[in-house]
Amino acid sequence: MEEQDCILANTYLITGGGGYFGYRLACALQRKGARVILFDVRPPDQVMLGGMVFKKGDIREYAQVEEATKGVGCVFHIASYGMSGREQLDRRLIEEVNVGGTEHVITACIANGVPRLVYTSTFNVVFGGQVIKNGDESLPYLPLDLHPDHYSKTKSQAEMAVLKANDALLHNGSGVLRTCALRPAGIYGPGEQRHLPRIVGYIEKGIFKFVYGEASSLVEFVHVDNLVSAHELAAVALGPEKQHRAAGKAYFISDGRPVNNFEFFRPLVEGLGYSFPKAISCPNANYWM
């Protein structure tokens, strides 16, 4: 492999690189000697390490995405909008970022000869509140009109677009685009700011008085470092050294330890010095107090 090809193969662009997971992934790649470009509307709060470059940009603006993908060997498309809180109210922005932004990333990869694209999706592409037991990647997409929120619907549309783009001819004649999608469970880990701080706030305000649902109901979580590893492995599995085995595929990513949603937070509750709500029996439902 020529020197220029080696540099290209070891150069990564992370959309949403200023966020919690994007920065964590960038650090892991940097430790392995990669050149990493963090593309986001705002820089990370943490320090930029050697080999990491922040490029301010908005995936809703194609020209900015096209410029950012030049000279890149792999794109990790993490940027999204509307998962929770007030963000969920702006349906137009959710669609512009999650669907339109993804189309921009795909088009830019093809235009600039980027051979690999890893998309960070979500469990929600198959889940709409229904019970799923022993589900795997053979599950069909949830029909778009059944999604309970616009975020999940648009993430599903984006994943479909990414996988459809697999094997698209690159404009520079160097080959084809290889794509895959990773569907993470709820993310936790050091410094996570979306889920755990909210739970801690409920506990400290005395709101965490009872929990509800079947005690046998299980959910999945994924530690941020496991999710980082999954993305690194996916990028390798899109390349020739692994015979492009991940190309055109989607994978659920979790710790592989299903747990009751509330039991997952028990160590946190008790570690803060609070008593965990105890179970009581109620007519027609199971509530935990």
UniProtKB/TrEMBL annotation:
UniProt keyword list: Oxidoreductase
One Gene Ontology molecular-function label: oxidoreductase activity, acting on the CH-OH group of donors, NAD or NADP as acceptor
Keyword Oxidoreductase: yes
One Pfam family cited in the UniProt record for this chain: 3Beta_HSD
Domain 3-beta hydroxysteroid dehydrogenase/isomerase stretches: 13-281
Cross-referenced InterPro entries: 3Beta_OHSteriod_DH/Estase, Lipid_A_modif_metabolic_enz, NAD(P)-bd_dom_sf
UniProt KW Oxidoreductase keyword: yes
GO terms (BP aspect): steroid biosynthetic process
Lineage: superkingdom: Eukaryota
PANTHER family, sorted: BIFUNCTIONAL POLYMYXIN RESISTANCE PROTEIN ARNA, SHORT CHAIN DEHYDROGENASE_REDUCTASE FAMILY 42E, MEMBER 2
Family in the record: Belongs to the 3-beta-HSD family.
Name the UniProt record assigns to this protein: 3-beta hydroxysteroid dehydrogenase/isomerase domain-containing protein
Organism from which the protein derives: Anguilla anguilla (European freshwater eel)
Species lineage: Eukaryota, Metazoa, Chordata, Craniata, Vertebrata
